[in-house]
Amino acid sequence: MSSRNILALIGAAGALLLVATQADAHARVVATSPAASATVASTRMITVTFSERVAPAFSGLDVVNAAGTTIAVTSSVSDDGKTISGRTGRALSAGVYTVNWRAASNDGHRMTGNFAFTVR
């Protein structure tokens, strides 16, 4: 096999790998508010922003305090489909809170994760 054919084969394999990698990409978290591990004065709004659209029917978040009690949250997905927002009924009192989020990419890949923050 000539070096020209080998280079063509390597180029084709590289292109296939690039396409396969892009096709397998899923949404990933790019920001949260409050930020993970942050200490904030108080908040009623929690957001998780993704790198691409998520499916609203399979996306949401829960907030749990240090005692393990789930705080009531109304969740929604932004118009651009990239941000899950949760609003509590009242401002969170002092303590540590864990946000458990769930989302599905438009390709159906389901994801979960969590982060914690502190209210002083």
TrEMBL record:
Q: Name one GO cellular component term.
A: periplasmic space
The protein's UniProt keywords, in alphabetical order, are: Copper, Metal-binding, Periplasm, Signal
**InterPro entries in the cross-refs:** CopC-like, CopC/D, CopC_dom, Cu-Rt/internalin_Ig-like, Ig_E-set
- Give the domain of life: Bacteria
SUPFAM superfamilies, A to Z: E set domains
What are the subcellular locations of this protein? Periplasm
Does the UniProt entry include the keyword Signal?
Answer: yes
The membrane-spanning stretches of this chain are none
Which region is the signal sequence?
Answer: 1-27
Write out the GO MF terms: copper ion binding
Stretches assigned to the CopC domain: 26-119
Q: Which GO terms describe its biological process?
A: copper ion transport; response to copper ion
Query: Do the record's keywords include Metal-binding?
Result: yes
Q: Which PANTHER family match?
A: INNER MEMBRANE PROTEIN YEBZ (PTHR34820:SF4)
Identify its protein family: Belongs to the CopC family.
Query: Under which name does UniProt file this protein?
Result: Copper resistance protein CopC
Question: What organism is the protein native to?
Answer: Brevundimonas subvibrioides
